[in-house]
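If you are new to this repository, start here. Below is one unmodified record pulled from the training split, so you can see the exact layout before writing a loader.
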Amino acid sequence: MRIQICDFGVGNIASIKWALRRLGITPTEKGGSSQARILPGVGSFRGALAAVNGLDKGGIPTLGICLGMQLFFESSEEAPGVPGLGWLKGETKRLPSKIIPHKGQNDGYWFDHSFVVTPKNPEHVLAAFEYEGEVYPAVVGDGNLLGCQFHPEKSRDKGLEFLERWISSWA
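And here is the target side for that same chain:
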């Protein structure tokens, strides 16, 4: 099984490799054909987007983690005027200043972010989380795209279970 991890130059690739290896998968970072790909979290919208410039949505299953999921959308308040990949309609908005950043365990998943996605199509929101009295998308998806605001690679057993379910959905 070949899963490519897209390298933004600042992402949490080591943690993702570790999680995939725990599931018996040796990921690849460059070249060759892959059955699926992961856009990791950590970094800036502008910088990560430059690293994946020209990435095609194609038919390959794609998991976006945190920032990787935010890239799926049309734009981000983090980088005004910079278009996202546009694979899903909507934008990424900054969390209210009173709660930045959202960092820590929430329902057993590890969150560490200052931005959240706001999909235009509510059917793209597959799961949500509550933080400081507000509800935000935790998992979004459409077709071969799946994105999570949390970091499954840092969420221990629950995160490994999430990755395993994603892999079994297309493998």
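Two things worth knowing about this chain: Residues 156-170 form the longest helix (15 residues). The two ends are 8 Å apart (CA to CA).
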